[in-house]
Design a protein that fits this description.
19% of the residues are buried. This protein is of the alpha+beta class. It folds into three domains: 1-188 and 295-355, no CATH class; 215-267; 357-389. The chain has helices spanning 34-49, 51-64, 77-86, 96-110, 189-211, 225-229, 231-250, 278-292, 307-343, 358-388, and strands at residues 28-29, 67-71, 88-89, 93-94, 112-119, 126-132, 137-141, 148-152, 160-161, 168-172, 215-220, 262-267, 349-353. Strands 1-7-8-9 form a four-stranded antiparallel beta sheet, with no helix packed on it. Strands 6-5-10 form a three-stranded antiparallel beta sheet. A two-stranded antiparallel ribbon has the order 2-13.
Amino acid sequence: MALFSKTKTAPKPDIGAETSPRAGGAGYFRLSGSSTSCEKELYSKLREEVPIIDACIGKIIRLVGGFRAEAQDPRFQPALDRFVRTVRVGASGRSLQTFADSFLDSLLTYGCALGEIVYDRTKTSVAGLYVAPVKNIDICEGRDPLSGRYYRFRGSEKPIRLTHPENIVFTALSPTPESPCGVSILRGLPGLSAILLRIYECIGQNFDRVGNVRYAVTYKPSGDGGDRAFARERAAQIAKEWSSGMAAMKSGEIRDFVAVGDVGIKVIGADNQIIDTEIPVRQILEQLVAKLGIPPFLLGLSWSTSERMSAQQSDILTSELEYYRRLLEPALRQICEAFLRISGSADGVEIEWDNIDLQDESELALARLRNAQARAVEISNEKEEIKSV
C-alpha cells in the first residue's frame, strides 16, 4: 500500500495518532520547512545551472557500479534474482539497480534519501519501489531516540503521519548532531558557483560588445560653406548607404561603400582586450572538483598531471565509491529481506558488489600473485631451517 504516491488506497492515520509533527522541542528535526526546502531547491538549481556539478554526480552514480543479491537460503535465489531484475520502480523504472541509482542521486544532492516498499492490496507480494521527494517529508523522533516518525506534506494541507514506517527506507549522508538528516555533497558550493556563473555571464557580455563587431562611421565636413550647409543631408545619406550595405551582408551580398569627403570608419572596441579568465575559472573549478571527489581527467579537464598522480586520484575515487556503497547496502538489504520475508524465507541476504573497473581486477590479481610468491619463499625458508636442524 503506497505511503507517498497519490493512490486511493493510501492508508489513513492511526486513530489517536498525531496529525502533525511537533512544532519544536528536544529531539525534533525536520527534512523540510522554509529554510531547508529552499536549500534543497537551491541544490536542484545548482545542478541545472552548473553542468560540471551535474556531470560529477552522474559519474559517481555510474561508477558505483552494479551488484548482486545473494540469498542465504539457495532455494529462494531464483525468485530473488527475478525480483532484482523486474521489480517496478516508480511509474517507468524497472529493477533494483534503477532504484539504487535514483536513491543515490537523492542522497548526494540533498544529503538524504527516502524510499518506500509498496505492497499489493493483499500484501502477499512486493508491487514495487518508490523514491520519495525528501522536501515533502518531515521526520521527528519516536518513543525513543532510535526510532522515528514520518510526516507527509502536500501543499497547504496539514501534515499527515505515515502509519507504516517499517515500509520506509531512509539513508542519511554524513549525519552530524547538528544535521541528523544528513549533509548534501553540494554544501559549500553555492557561493563558488555564483562567482563562476558571474564570470561566465561577464564573458558573454564582453563577447557581445567586442566579439560582435560594430562600426563607427564619422563624417567631418570641410571648411567650405556649401559643404557645411549640406552636412546634415550628406550624413543622412552616408548612414542610409552604410545600413543598406550591412543589411546586404546578411544575405551574402558584398557591397562597396563609396563616400566623398572626410569619412572615417572605425571598429568599436577593437582597441580593448577581453580579460583573461582562465586562472580564476580554474581556481573555482578546482574547488568544485575537490569537494565532489571526481578526478579532473574524468570530466574532460585537460589539467597537467602525471601518471602516478592519476593512479593516486583513481585510488582516492575508489575509496569514495566504496563509502557510497556502504551507505546503499543497508537500504538494498532491507528491500531484499522484505521480499524474502513475504516469500516465506526467514534467512538474510548479502549484497555482492561488482569490481569498480578492470584496473581493480588487475591490481587484485597482482596482489594475489605477490602474496603467493611471498608464501612460497616463506615455505622454502622453513624447509631449509628444518634441514639445517
